[in-house]
Design a protein that fits this description.
The protein has 96 residues and is an alpha+beta fold. The chain is built from 3 helices and 4 strands. The chain has a single domain (2-95), classed as Ribosome hibernation promotion factor-like (Double Stranded RNA Binding Domain, 2-Layer Sandwich). A hairpin with a 3-residue loop joins strand 3 and strand 4 (59-66). The chain starts with a strand and ends with a helix.
């Protein structure tokens, strides 16, 4: 997956960037290596907001906010997987 990381009022350190890329790499089996994704990181007050948009056949988007960016990625991955499974199941049902 080709991942573009955008920061809005948040300083991304190398440790978090490595963790994000590692965890998002797991989504390759669902979307493929050539799929584009945009990850937005921002901070509003004491809240950290992480939003991911994956531009596949159907655009998939998920957002998480909390006191810790590391926890946000753990919330986003299952949301994206759930949306993918839902769309995939729908398309199979429509075909057959």
């Amino acid at each position: 997956m080709k991942i573009e990381i955008m920061n809005h009022g948040y300083n991304l350190d190398d440790k978090l960037k490595t963790l994000l890329l590692k965890k998002l790499k797991r989504l390759d089996k669902y979307f493929g290596a050539e799929t584009a994704a945009r990850l937005n990181l921002s901070q509003q007050g004491g809240n950290y907001i992480m939003e991911i948009t994956i531009f596949a056949e159907k655009t998939v988007r998920a957002e998480a906010s909390g006191a810790d960016m590391n926890a946000n990625i753990d919330l986003l991955i299952p949301r994206i997987k759930r949306q993918f499974r839902k769309e995939h199941t729908k398309s199979i049902a429509e075909r057959g």
